[in-house]
Amino acid sequence: MEKPDLSREVQLEAKIRQYEPMIHAVMNKLNILYDKDDFLQIGRIAVFQALLGYDPARARGATESQFVYTRIYQRLIDEIRRCVRVSKGLELTEWLEDDGTSAVRESYVDLLNGDLVELLTEREMQWLELMTEGYSTSEIAGILGVSISTIKAVRLKVRVKVKEFVNTI
């Protein structure tokens, strides 16, 4: 029976610890305030998988640290989106108002979901669905094949329509 290569494991653990400040930096960049231990562990797993999968020949000029950073960032974004999908039905997100106080509360969510189909255009509904799934403005622009300024204009129209609708209830 072969003994596992403990020196490789120890080296890998040391590398993962070396990248922990990078994980914290990405968490701060993404403004992760809650469940930091969970996100830190997800970041560690991302580092582990990135280190195992890093191939300088296939990395298109990216250094190991750039590759690891990208993997950490992508994994944490994926986890944030997953969390958003889970909590999607509780309340429409803060994007409705810039000051963070949403005019739409839980009691309106079911009503809005039904009536928004009639109130909003097809593009506005697509934007709303993508936004509540956690996509960024630039990602939505890419998905819908329009410019970022067009997406910002759609967002403003949706805000106005939803605010008017809520005020008539």
From TrEMBL:
Protein name (record): RNA polymerase sigma factor, sigma-70 family
A Pfam family of this chain: GerE
GO term, biological process aspect, one: DNA-templated transcription initiation
Record-linked Gene3D superfamilies: 1.10.1740.10, Winged helix-like DNA-binding domain superfamily/Winged helix DNA-binding domain
UniProt KW Acyltransferase keyword: no
Species per Swiss-Prot/TrEMBL record: Lacicoccus alkaliphilus DSM 16010
Residue stretches making up the HTH luxR-type domain: 113-169
Gene Ontology terms, MF aspect: DNA binding; DNA-binding transcription factor activity
Top-level taxon of origin: Bacteria
Keyword field: Transcription, Transcription regulation
Keyword Transcription included in the entry's annotation: yes
